[in-house]
């Protein structure tokens, strides 16, 4: 009964406050938002430019993952953590952050070309949006084509019945992007396999030694983990991994 009284009192108090605010509140002014200015055709001010900007921002994660070196880097670093057996060390935030900055470092020349031939001329009003998109696609196509296997590219070209292009510039992005993505995954898994081998050897040696000593109940991972960490530190593993990733994009 006491709780019901408190609830009734709170309801009456809330209702009185609403009535009081409604009686003395001033009417809110009308607010309208107009998309686009009076300048007309200036780049970046029209409603179409705003719509294009929102579309690009919404697709930015997919562009970063599938059209840059991000996929290979983050997969390889994930394999390093798995092969070490350190569970969540380094954490996902560190792996993704390192992958992002390595991606920006590797893609800097390509992004510089996009800025020079497409973005800056468009901001100055020298070219249209369509021309800017076509010019920006050329450096990205060149980068993706140089790291895409011919077998993967033919898979999507044959499926879409695309005619044989004269150069990489004639390859549609709808064909080149998925071909590049699966090529990157294959390369990343090959590098991951090579990373696993030395740590797998340590696990096998530790497991065999424990079985020979009759220690069946002792988990081998508890003994092998310090040895794997020691080996990784002695050979300067992070330096070798990052160096291998950088060199893999120079070929």
From TrEMBL:
Annotated transmembrane regions: 49-80, 92-112, 193-217, 229-249
GO aspect biological process, one term: bacterial-type flagellum organization
Signal peptide as annotated in the record: 1-25
PROSITE patterns noted in UniProt: FLIP_1, FLIP_2
Membrane topology: Multi-pass membrane protein
Record's protein name: Flagellar biosynthetic protein FliP
Record has Iron as a keyword: no
Assigned keywords, A-Z: Bacterial flagellum, Bacterial flagellum biogenesis, Bacterial flagellum protein export, Cell membrane, Cell projection, Cilium, Flagellum, Membrane, Protein transport, Signal, Transmembrane, Transmembrane helix, Transport
Protein species of origin: Paenibacillus pinisoli
């Amino acid at each position: 009964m006491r709780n019901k009284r408190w609830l009734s009192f709170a309801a009456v108090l809330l209702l009185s406050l609403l009535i009081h605010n409604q009686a003395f509140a001033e009417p809110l002014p009308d607010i309208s938002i107009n998309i686009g200015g009076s300048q007309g055709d200036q780049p970046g001010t029209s409603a179409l430019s705003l719509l294009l900007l929102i579309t690009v921002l919404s697709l930015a994660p997919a562009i970063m993952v599938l059209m840059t070196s991000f996929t290979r880097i983050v997969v390889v670093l994930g394999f390093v953590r798995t092969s070490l057996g350190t569970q969540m060390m380094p954490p996902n935030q560190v792996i993704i952050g390192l992958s992002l900055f390595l991606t920006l470092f590797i893609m800097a020349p390509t992004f510089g070309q996009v800025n020079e031939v497409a973005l800056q001329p468009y901001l100055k009003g020298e070219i249209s949006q369509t021309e800017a998109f076509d010019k920006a696609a050329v450096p990205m196509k060149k980068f993706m084509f140089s790291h895409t296997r011919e077998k993967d590219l033919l898979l999507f070209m044959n499926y879409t019945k695309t005619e044989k292009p004269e150069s990489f510039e004639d390859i549609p992005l709808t064909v080149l992007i998925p071909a590049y993505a699966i090529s990157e995954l294959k390369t990343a898994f090959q590098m991951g396999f090579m990373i696993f081998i030395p740590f797998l050897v340590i696990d096998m040696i530790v497991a065999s030694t424990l079985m020979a000593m009759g220690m069946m109940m002792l988990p081998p991972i508890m003994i092998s983990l310090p040895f794997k960490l020691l080996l990784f530190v002695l050979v300067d593993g992070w330096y070798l991994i990052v160096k291998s990733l950088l060199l893999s994009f120079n070929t």
